[in-house]
């Protein structure tokens, strides 16, 4: 025994890592006969707490069905690969009919690493390592879990087909399902820090000590309410009692978040079950969401959609969630996606490419978004507030605000509930934006949908009325979805969002009369649409035959360039941090947003650990 102790320091020491499939283990290379040292393996604690990241709209890679690939005469089944933007531009920058067919929610699914939900219609064989090299083969090891298995060395060494690289293990975790160029920094930081909280059992790792331990959260932003306590050394020691493997799950962002919640819930339950079947204690998962995935995360907890419980999802961290929608969706369907407008050069490039792919004009964008239930769920709902669509004259006088405010008891009850953060009195009333804006007829100049732009691919065989009926149904369902989840927030919710005047967002959408005698034109609701160029310029005829020209104005409300703070992002319920300095799409590349996320995850994990003895008794 004493000899063992004396020789232990000279032995080969290996720490258990994670294999593809989730099991714990290690790969050891046998030593030459003349090497008497033993291999000593440090075993994991047996507890695992998966962290699951859900990306925002356009943040998941999509592939198309065999039938759609054949119809478009494509060499492969790629529908959307945001990490390969220049290649994607070459594929998709076509007429609106090609865009409509390419981004068809009924003919697309998530590009999962060598897996498909429907083998009859989708070809998973194309989803190999080459297709998933957005997580590069050169991905550095992130100890202790994402470690490349060692390969035999020497003149006659034979490659072991069972070994896997760090990149392949990350791909199995779903990292290649999402836009790694945008989310990779977050995924790598979470993996490195959450699994390296301490050295041994007591000493806090330096990667935590400098920036996080005992640091007030106002280091990273302004608490919206009472500030939560800082991360402590004891918190990190509790975190170090198990593994925190970071997973990502893409989803079909073209489809309804309610529909996708049912699919993601199955994947989450399967992941928990997998870890338990491997012998781990897995008390549940923690979700981290970006943008629209916040709506998906809330739907995961709703009984009609994901129906997950607080014993399966221990908490949710929401980043830049459009809690009640975003008026930018209306703007884009009328006048196209915004071009490069940010401060960050890389973000400007991404914005420019997204504009080219999804549409520079309302005509191009409508062909995609009008047929995509998920995208329509980003439109403002009634809780977004009243009067967000406005008409002004050249002197700044407001001529019209839609939707119009209700009167009497209904108005007072809604305002009181919003002010005090209480549930609304009953489900949402018939949506006033739906009736007053989204489903207005073609001749209403302020309407959302131009019937001529819906179906350039002739999926409805040229029947405009049938196409419009289908869109109207999608819009109604989108508002029903918002009504269903309006009060659904996980009891352990943390969130952060941008409230920055330097990154103005469309809180309101303003049409300004830039030409014509508006004083003689009469009520704006009576104006008749004459021309719409799909780029934010309208001509209308008012009373007495007066012709007016209207221009869509730039965004003016504080936010993150996409989600306005006051009308939408601020209405999340939970422990909330208000931040500045980042743009919506690249928010998780901001170090303060990453810091807020790490703090939130640790606090959720520690709260779960504190409840564990009680729940297991």
From TrEMBL:
Region of interest (Disordered), ranges = 1-35
- Tell me the superkingdom of the source: Bacteria
Protein name from the UniProt record: PGAP1-like protein
In terms of InterPro entries, this protein maps to: AB_hydrolase_fold
Report the SUPFAM superfamilies cross-referenced here.
alpha/beta-Hydrolases
């Amino acid at each position: 025994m004493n000899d063992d102790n004396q020789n232990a320091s000279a032995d080969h020491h290996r720490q258990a890592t994670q294999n593809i499939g989730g099991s714990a283990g290690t790969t050891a290379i046998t030593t030459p006969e003349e090497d008497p040292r033993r291999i000593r393996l440090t075993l994991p604690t047996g507890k695992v707490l998966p962290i699951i990241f859900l990306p925002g709209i356009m943040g998941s890679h999509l592939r198309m069905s065999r039938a759609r690939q054949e119809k478009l005469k494509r060499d492969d089944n790629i529908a959307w690969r945001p990490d390969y933007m220049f290649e994607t531009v070459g594929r998709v920058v076509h007429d609106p009919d090609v865009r409509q067919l390419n981004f068809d929610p009924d003919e697309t699914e998530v590009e999962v690493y060598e897996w498909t939900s429907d083998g009859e219609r989708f070809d998973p064989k194309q989803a190999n390592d080459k297709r998933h090299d957005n997580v590069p083969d050169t991905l550095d090891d992130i100890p202790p879990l994402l470690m490349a298995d060692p390969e035999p060395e020497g003149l006659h060494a034979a490659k072991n087909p069972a070994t896997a690289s760090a990149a392949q293990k990350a791909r199995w975790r779903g990292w290649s399902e999402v836009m790694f160029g945008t989310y990779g920094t977050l995924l790598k930081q979470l993996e490195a820090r959450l699994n390296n909280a301490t050295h041994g059992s007591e000493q806090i790792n330096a990667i935590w000590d400098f920036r996080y331990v005992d640091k007030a959260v106002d280091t990273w932003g302004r608490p919206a309410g009472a500030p939560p306590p800082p991360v402590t050394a004891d918190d990190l020691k509790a975190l170090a009692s198990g593994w925190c493997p970071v997973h990502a799950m893409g989803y079909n962002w073209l489809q309804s978040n309610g529909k996708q919640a049912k699919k993601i819930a199955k994947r989450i339950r399967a992941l928990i079950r997998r870890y338990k079947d491997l012998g781990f204690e897995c008390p549940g998962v923690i979700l981290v969401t970006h943008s629209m995935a916040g709506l998906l995360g809330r739907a995961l907890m709703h009984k009609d959609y994901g129906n997950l419980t607080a014993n399966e999802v221990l908490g949710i961290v929401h980043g830049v969630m459009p809690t009640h929608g975003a008026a930018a969706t209306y703007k884009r369907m009328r006048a196209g996606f915004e071009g490069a407008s940010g401060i960050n050069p890389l973000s400007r490039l991404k914005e420019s490419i997204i504009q080219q792919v999804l549409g520079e004009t309302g005509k191009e964008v409508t062909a995609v978004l009008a047929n995509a239930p998920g995208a329509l769920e980003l439109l403002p709902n009634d809780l977004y507030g009243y009067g967000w669509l406005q008409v002004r004259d050249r002197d700044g006088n407001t001529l019209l605000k839609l939707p119009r405010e209700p009167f009497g008891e209904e108005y007072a009850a809604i305002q009181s509930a919003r002010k005090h953060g209480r549930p609304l009195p009953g489900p949402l009333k018939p949506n006033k934006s739906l009736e007053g804006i989204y489903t207005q007829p073609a001749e209403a100049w302020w309407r959302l949908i131009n019937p001529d732009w819906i179906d350039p691919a002739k999926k409805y065989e040229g029947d405009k009325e049938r196409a419009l009926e289908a869109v109207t149904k999608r819009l109604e369902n989108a508002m029903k979805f918002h009504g269903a989840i309006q009060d659904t927030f996980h009891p352990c919710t943390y969130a952060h969002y941008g409230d920055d005047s330097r990154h103005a967002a469309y809180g309101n959408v303003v049409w300004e009369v830039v030409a014509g005698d508006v004083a003689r034109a009469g009520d704006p609701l009576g104006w008749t649409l004459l021309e719409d160029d799909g780029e934010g310029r309208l001509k209308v005829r008012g009373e007495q035959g007066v012709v007016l020209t209207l221009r869509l104005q730039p965004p003016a409300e504080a936010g993150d360039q996409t989600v306005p703070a006051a009308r939408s992002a601020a209405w999340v319920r939970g422990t909330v941090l208000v931040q500045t300095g980042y743009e919506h799409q690249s928010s998780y590349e901001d170090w303060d947003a990453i810091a807020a996320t790490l703090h939130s995850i640790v606090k959720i994990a520690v709260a779960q650990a504190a409840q564990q003895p009680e729940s297991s008794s």
